[in-house]
C-alpha cells in the first residue's frame, strides 16, 4: 500500500504541472462541447486531434484525450435533456426521463442530478481504477504469448459477435479491420500482403487516416444525409440548476448503484456505456417508490444511468492500460494514440513508464473537478451551442479531417484513402454494421499476430500450445461459448415456438 501511495502521489506531481493542468482543462472543455453538440462524440474528436497530438508530449496528449472522453460523458446529458437528442450513445436512456423533466419545467433539476451524479460516479470509479489497475497489471505480467493471444481472440469475439444485433455483420466488420491492419510488407517473409500492387500500401495503412475516415468523414456524411434536416426544439432551461432536498433523497442511491454497475461492465469487451445505462434504468424503475413518474419525468431515471455512463467510461481504462485491449471505439483510438508514440499499453507500462500511467490516472481526479465546475455554473453557455447550425459543424469537421490526414505525410494518396474510408464508414452506418469491431481489428490485429508468432516460436510450431495452457484454453473456451450459446438458445426458442406445449 505504501508503494501505491508513493506512485499515486508522484502521479499528482505530474498531473499538477501547469502545462498538464492546461491540457486537462482543454480536454475537459472540448469534451463537454462535443458531448453537448449532437452527432459529435469523443471518438470523432480524438480522431481529429490525433495528427495534432504528434507534436505534443505523450503524457500531456493522453491527459487531454482522457479529458475529452470524460467530458463527453458529462456533456452528453445536456443534449439528451434539453433537445431529446443524445449527444453520446451512453446518454440515450437519459433522454427518456430527462427530456420529460425539461418539458415539465424541471430541466435545471435534471441537469443537476446528471452533473452531480457524473461527478460522484467519476470519483468513485477513479478510486476503483487506482486500486484495481495495479492488481490486474501484476496478474497480466504472468501471462505468456499464448494467453495474450487468447485474450485478444476473446476481445475480437466479444466486440463482433456480441456487439450489435447481427453477429454476422460484426464479424464482417472485424474481418475488414484485420485485413486493413495487416496490410503491408509481412515481417518474416518480406512479401507484400493485401497491398493490391500499390507501393503506397507497402508500409501499411496509416491508422490515423482510417480512423479519421470512419469517424469524422463517414459519421459526418451520415448525419448530413439523414439527420441534417431535422429541426428539434431546445427546451427552456428555466430556473437555476439546483436540486431540492427531495431530489437529493431520490438521487443518491441511484448514483451509487449506477456507479457500481457501470464500472465492472465498462471493463469487459462489448460492455460499452449503453448496456450499464439500460440496466441501471431497468433497476431504478423496479426499485423506485414513485413508479407512476417513470415515463413522465422520474429523476431516478436520469441519476442512475448518468452515473453508470461515467463509471463505465472510466472502467474502459482498466483493460486499456493493463492489457492493451480497448473495449470501446474511443478507447481503441486512444490506443492508437499510444502507438503513435511507440508506447504499447500493458502490464509492463506500469514499470517502464510509471510517470505517464500515474500522471494520467491522477489527471482523471483533477478533470472530474474541472468538469463539475464547467457543467453546473456554465450550463447556460453550453446551451447556446445547441443553436449552432448543423451544416457549419459538418463543414468544420470535414475541413479538419482533411487537413489532419494530409498533414501526416503530405500525400495525395492519404486524401484519396480518407475519402474511400469515409464512404465505407457511411455505408456501414447506413446498413447497421458496427464500426467498433473494425477499429479493434485494425489496431489490435497486428499485435495479436505478433503474440501468435511468439507462442508458436516458443512451442516450436505446435498449435496445441493454445489449448494445453490452462489460462489460454479457458479464455478460448469462453470465447467459443459466446458464439455457440446464442445459436443454441436461438435454436431452442425456434423449436419451442414450432412445438408449443399443450396445457
Automatic annotation (TrEMBL):
Q: Which PANTHER family match?
A: TRICARBOXYLIC TRANSPORT PROTEIN
State which residue ranges cross the membrane: 6-26, 33-56, 62-83, 110-137, 149-168, 317-338, 358-379, 391-409, 415-444, 465-489
Q: What is the lineage of its organism?
A: Bacteria, Pseudomonadati, Pseudomonadota, Gammaproteobacteria, Candidatus Competibacteraceae
Question: Domain of life, per the record?
Answer: Bacteria
What is this protein's name?
Putative tricarboxylic transport membrane protein
| Keywords for this protein | Membrane, Transmembrane, Transmembrane helix
Q: Can the keyword Phosphoprotein be found in this entry's annotation?
A: no
One Pfam match, given by its short name, reads TctA
* Entry keyword Membrane: yes
Q: Which residues form the DUF112 domain?
A: 21-439
Amino acid at each position: 500500500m505504501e508503494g501505491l501511495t508513493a506512485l499515486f502521489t508522484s502521479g499528482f506531481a505530474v498531473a499538477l504541472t501547469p502545462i498538464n493542468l492546461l491540457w486537462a482543462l482543454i480536454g475537459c472543455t472540448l469534451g463537454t462541447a462535443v458531448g453537448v453538440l449532437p452527432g459529435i462524440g469523443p471518438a470523432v474528436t480524438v480522431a481529429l486531434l490525433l495528427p495534432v497530438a504528434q507534436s505534443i508530449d505523450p503524457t500531456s496528449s493522453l491527459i487531454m484525450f482522457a479529458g475529452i472522453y470524460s467530458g463527453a460523458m458529462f456533456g452528453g446529458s445536456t443534449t439528451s435533456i434539453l433537445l431529446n437528442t443524445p449527444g453520446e450513445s451512453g446518454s440515450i436512456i437519459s433522454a427518456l426521463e430527462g427530456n420529460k423533466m425539461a418539458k415539465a419545467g424541471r430541466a435545471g433539476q435534471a441537469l443537476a442530478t446528471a452533473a452531480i451524479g457524473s461527478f460522484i460516479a467519476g470519483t468513485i470509479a477513479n478510486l476503483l481504477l487506482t486500486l484495481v489497475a495495479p492488481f490486474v497489471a501484476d496478474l497480466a505480467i504472468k501471462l505468456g504469448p499464448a494467453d495474450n493471444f487468447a485474450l485478444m481472440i476473446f476481445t475480437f469475439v466479444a466486440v463482433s459477435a456480441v456487439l450489435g444485433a447481427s453477429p454476422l455483420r460484426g464479424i464482417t466488420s472485424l474481418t475488414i479491420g484485420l485485413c486493413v491492419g495487416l496490410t503491408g510488407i509481412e515481417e518474416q517473409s518480406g512479401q507484400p500482403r493485401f497491398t493490391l500492387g500499390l507501393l503506397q500500401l507497402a508500409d501499411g495503412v496509416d491508422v490515423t487516416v482510417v480512423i479519421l475516415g470512419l469517424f469524422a468523414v463517414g459519421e459526418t456524411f451520415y448525419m448530413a444525409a439523414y439527420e441534417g434536416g431535422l429541426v428539434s426544439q431546445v427546451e427552456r432551461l428555466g430556473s437555476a440548476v439546483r436540486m431540492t432536498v427531495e431530489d437529493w433523497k431520490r438521487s443518491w442511491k441511484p448514483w451509487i448503484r449506477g456507479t457500481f454497475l457501470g464500472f465492472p461492465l465498462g471493463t469487459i469487451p462489448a460492455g460499452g456505456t449503453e448496456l450499464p445505462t439500460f440496466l441501471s434504468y431497468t433497476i431504478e424503475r423496479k426499485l423506485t417508490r414513485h413508479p407512476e413518474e417513470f415515463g413522465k419525468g422520474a429523476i431516478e431515471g436520469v441519476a442512475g444511468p448518468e452515473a453508470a455512463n461515467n463509471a463505465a467510461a472510466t472502467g474502459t481504462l482498466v483493460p486499456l492500460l493493463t492489457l492493451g485491449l480497448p473495449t470501446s471505439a474511443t478507447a481503441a483510438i486512444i490506443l492508437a494514440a499510444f502507438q503513435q508514440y511507440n508506447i504499447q499499453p500493458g502490464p509492463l507500462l506500469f514499470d517502464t513508464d510509471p510517470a505517464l500511467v500515474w500522471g494520467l490516472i491522477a489527471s482523471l481526479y483533477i478533470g472530474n473537478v474541472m468538469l463539475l465546475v464547467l457543467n453546473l455554473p456554465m450550463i447556460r453557455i453550453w446551451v447556446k451551442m445547441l443553436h449552432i447550425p448543423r451544416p457549419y459543424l459538418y463543414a468544420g469537421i470535414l475541413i479538419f479531417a482533411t487537413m489532419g490526414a494530409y498533414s501526416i505525410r503530405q500525400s495525395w494518396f492519404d486524401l484519396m484513402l480518407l475519402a474511400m474510408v469515409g464512404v465505407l464508414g457511411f455505408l456501414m452506418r447506413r446498413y447497421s454494421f458496427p464500426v467498433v469491431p473494425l477499429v479493434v481489428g485494425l489496431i489490435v490485429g497486428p499485435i495479436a499476430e505478433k503474440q501468435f508468432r511468439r507462442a508458436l516460436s516458443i512451442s516450436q510450431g505446435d498449435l496445441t500450445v493454445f489449448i494445453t495452457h490452462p489460462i489460454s484454453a479457458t479464455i478460448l473456451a469462453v470465447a467459443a461459448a459466446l458464439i455457440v450459446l446464442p445459436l443454441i438458445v436461438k435454436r431452442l426458442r425456434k423449436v419451442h415456438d414450432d412445438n408449443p406445449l399443450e396445457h
